[in-house]
Amino acid sequence: MDPATLKAAFASLAETGREYLSSEGITPEAISYERSVDFRYHGQEYVMTIPLPSGTIDMAAVRASFDVAYERQYGHSSPEGRVEMANIRLAALGRRPRPVNAPPASVAARPPRERAVHFAGAPQKTVIPDRNGMTEGKVVSGPAIIEEGTATTLLPPGWQARLIVGGHMSQTRTGAAI
Amino acid sequence: MSVTADPITTEVVRNFVISCAEDMNASLWRSAHSSVIYGGKDSAVALMDEHGNMLGQSTGVPLFIGAIDACVHRVKAYYGDDIHEGDVFIMNDSYLQGTHLHDVTAIGGIFRDGELVGFGDARAHWGDIGAIDPGSTMQSTDIYQEGLRLGPTRIISRGKQIREWYDHLRLHTRLKDATIGDLGSQVAPIRTGERRLGQLLDRIGVPVYRSACQNIFEQSRRMDREAIAAIQDGTWTRHGFLDDDGTGTTPIRVELTLTIKGEALTVDLTGSSSPVPGSVNCGAKQTESLLRLAYKTMINPDRAITGGSFETMTVIVPDSCMFNAQEPSACEWYFTGLGLLADLFISCMSEAMLERSTAAHYGDSMVAGFFSVDKTRGQWIALEPTAGGWGGRRDSDDESALINLVNGGFCNIPAKVYETKFPIRLEEFSIRKDSGGPGRYRSGCGVVRRYKVLEPCYSALWFERSKTPAWGLNGGKDGKGPFIEITLPDGTKEHLFKMRAQALEAGTIVETMTGGGGGR
To answer: b vs e for B151-172, b when ≥16 Cβ sit within 10 Å of the residue's Cβ?
Structure first.
């Protein structure tokens, strides 16, 4: 294929992507593009997607990188075989500023419970707190089972959990693991 | 001190080898050049230990899998210690490996630090192997008319293709590059198996792996022995007839006797026809493979085949029998008798295991082919099996429009592929109403496929089981047999079941109907 035809096809895809992103309010300097081509040997059905470096298209280099990728995937390749391009792909990427790490809304917590849980074959008194009751800086020490609406976190003996900025939970090993 | 694998490691290895085989098959399908492999899935792969004992397998066509270990044994017997890292061998001899010459098996050793630790095998259908007709020959009377025949043959030596063999293969097939491409796609699963097994061996090492393999074989042995011991003892005999051998009109007798005694199951094919002039003869390895498959449908069907499977089964095939083909018997349509053999086996087992009893299914692959050479497409071949109806079960109706037992995942060609790649329009694909045998539990129905030929081309048909259609059980009635109608452009109609490379004018309509299963 004529590199100019390929270049024009990518330019047209890039323009479409740029329009989508602009309509979403992304500024031109925050937009970048990633190009790739789906290659196969003539007669095959399935393809391999080969990334295309930015800048001028070097068809010989792209072709060679298909042979290398094919060799890696299938254990053999045919550098003398005819290849065909089945699809060209372009991803238009718009970079957004990192969102603010807002703390979650406060929800009323159920009172903590407690029961025996077996660790390393022996029962241990284990606290079962509600995660909604954890506040930033307050430490929960294992053994504990931290409950919340969408997850249950097992904190083994020798571990500590605390909330950090944004309401995330951080766990640290403080003693010997079991 | 010897190393042993604990039960958990054994279970991890057992599941790993199965997923490894699936990866191997995916690499075959995804790199294939011919639609019969990537679309039709006319293939099978296996991961074996260094002795050729089965570990993991993945199939399009399950009929292949019980004979694939024979290829490793043949390569080892022929090459001995002269098997090296990076070598690939191929073979297709119908008497050594079963099947027809189209099915070429690629075999390669898997090495770890210079030590042989296993084999990867990949069998796939080559669209053309240089026979008297393009694609499948219809009326061959000896194997020399059926194409290039290879015993174990090294084609890649220590990673390097042996150029003269590749040139030789290319000269012997009408499909040229596509065939060489398909051969490449058969190397891929061997390399994939090597890479994936290497990842496991990085974690557990060779001694633990070998111990786990022995545990897996032992599990299979034990489960098979227990399953056979639980079945009532007895002897049962069944027979049926193939329509003909492809050259004449004489029905061909197929007979099977099953004996179960304690932990031993014996299948004896005495009473089946002697070798026939046509091409429905089958190598003994493939016959055994079919019986292994039929056995597996009844005994521990949800457990993968391993090197410990089938030790409970003895197969007796007389020396002079169509199911023990010897040079120079023709084998192109070797599978014709196998669907019937599977039905006869299951029929006998239905007496022994009432809880699994099942009536007969429509039986054969029912192959429809169209081909020609033209300027835009070059040599083209569209070849497909056709689905049909399965027999009623003890407690439920059975499936309509399902491929026959020996073919498993083998698929017909989708209408869109016919219409974009070939000058054929698929005008109808429907359930053939009321073709299944009636009974308390209904059997499945066959299908109707109507092809319109848009440009002059050739067609070949191979339909079977009109004389012994799927039989019913327990008072259930037989299913309908197949039916074919060819309507020429002038309106003339022809009815037949087998047709060799017949030239068709544009506008000809070929309508095929497959049989239903037996009722129960």
So the answer is: ebbbbbeeeebeeebeeebeeb
